Every structure is written in C-alpha cells, then in structure tokens.
Amino acid sequence: MSIQRKPVIYLTNKDLRAELEKSLAQGKMTEEMGRMFIQLVDNIAKKSCYASYTYLDEMKGTAILTLCKGWYKFDLKYSNCFAYYTSFVKNAFNHVLRVEKKEQRGRDSIMVDNGLNPSFGFSEEDYENVRGFSIGGDRDETIDGVPLPKYEEISDIDSEKDISEEHDENHTLICEERID
To answer: Are the C-beta atoms of residues 29 and 52 closer than 8 Å to each other?
Structure first.
C-alpha cells in the first residue's frame, strides 16, 4: 500500500490576484508580490525541461527582471493572472535558451574555423547557418551599425598566380633559386 503525497501548493491564483490588486492600488509592486514572483520562477525552474541547464541562474534572473518590468500590464477583467505570469517566465526562459544556442553555434563555428573540435551536437549544417556570426550573436554584417570588414573566401584566391611577380627582383631571385 503506497501513500500518495498531496501536491504542495506554493502559490494560488487567488493569492496572486489579491496581491496584484493591492500592488496596483499602491502604484508599486509590494514585497509580497516580489516574493511570489521569485517563488513562481524558482518552481518553474525545477521542471525537468529547465533544471539541467548550466545557465539556469541567468534564466531565472531574466525571468524575474521580465516580471518586474511587466507586472502591471495584466488586465483585471481576466481571471487567471497566474497563467499570465507563468507565460512571462516560460518565455523569458526560452529566450535565454535561444540566445545561448545561437552563441554556442557561433563559438563552435569559430572553433571549426581555427581547426579545433566543436561541441558534440554541432554539424556541418550548423556551420553553414552561422557563417557571418559576430560576437553577441548577430548575423548581420554590422555590429551596432558599424560595418564588419569583408573577408575573402579561400576559393576566391587565384591559386595559379605566380607569387614571384608580386615581389622585388632580389626576392624573386632568391625564391627562384630555392625552387630549383
């Protein structure tokens, strides 16, 4: 005979709504609402789909920041503020995951360009998708509006060209003597 545990209810929609109404009446977020947000973020972060990430603290910080910036936007004519704030947290978590994935692919691309081994899940298709990656995850040809320098592709270099033509006479003679 197994004993079933009751799920622990850490935060209810009713409590969250009451605190939201109190905060809106004061015109600022109450301490209790802040604690509720932290509790909400901590419990969502314990879900198996998020718990194993090494940058979980960054995800949680982004979620709390997002909640603090947009807590007052909930329209009281709707009843479920818990779902509204939960979507804030999940969207913030997923945003951090997308940014980290883009940066990881960029790092892997740089590693491949330098002859090093990339991370395990990196493929040639990923390499082609991140060509032109710049620091910060931008795929644009600019960083903060400043154009990046253009790099020649290896295939653009004319391999048939005689190198000795570009150098002065003495250097050419030395090169020719070494070749013979």
So the answer is: no
Contact between residue 105 and residue 126 where contact means Cβ atoms under 8 Å apart: yes
Q: What is the domain range of residue 81?
A: 13-147
Specify if 141 maps to a domain: yes
Angstrom CA distances, 152 to 67, 115, 148, 156, 169, stand at 46, 18, 13, 6, 28
Walk along the chain (180 residues) and give the pLDDT tens digit of each residue: 677 777 777 899 999 999 999 999 999 999 999 999 999 999 999 999 999 898 899 999 999 999 999 999 999 999 999 999 999 999 999 999 999 888 888 877 777 778 777 777 676 665 666 555 544 444 445 434 445 444 343 334 444 444 444 444 444 433 344 443
In a domain, 23, yes or no: yes
Q: Is 101 helix (H, G, I), strand (E, B) or coil?
A: helix
Distance CA 10, CA 48 (A): 18
What does R_g of the chain's alpha carbons equal in angstroms? 28
- Tell me, what amino acid is at 68? C
Domain count, the chain: 1
- Spell out the residues 6+ positions from residue 43 whose beta carbon is closer than 8 angstroms to its own: 10, 11
Whether residue 27 lies inside any domain: the answer is yes
Given the structure tokens 């905060």, which residue do they identify?
23
Asked if residue 163 is part of any domain, the answer here is no
> What's the pTM value of the predicted model, to 2 decimals?
0.63
